[in-house]
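Re: the request from the purification team.
They wanted to know what the chain is likely to look like in 3D before they choose a buffer screen. I agreed to run a prediction and write the result into the notebook, where they can find it.
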Amino acid sequence: MSISRFELLALMLSEKFQTITMSNLAQGMSVPMSTATGIVDRLVKKGLLQRGRSEEDRRVVTVSLTDNGKALVEDLKEHFHDFLDRVRSLLTEEEFETGLKLVRKVILKFQKSARDPDEKPAQQRRSIEIE
């Protein structure tokens, strides 16, 4: 089964929050709602996500992992940990820790630039709160 990076991100966000609204999923992926809907449609068709409705507001669409989706995410996490173990075996502890610090720094900078409206990214996206 082939999974795009956005589909993988949708699965990981769904796993993290257990049940997530479509608007929060779109915001978490930094994509418009129409793009998130297409991604979720593909994942529902693959049997990895299921749609539902919020108990508080039946107009709000939620998504959550199916059993197959949960199994796939667990498998991917296991492969990722195996990969990290292989990387760790090639480096000294100090090199590995330095690498982790650099990755964290890059992630934080990306998150900051996504939140900072004064910063001019190459392509700026507008987020509209629906809920």
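For the purification team: The mean pLDDT is 87.
Please add any questions underneath this entry.
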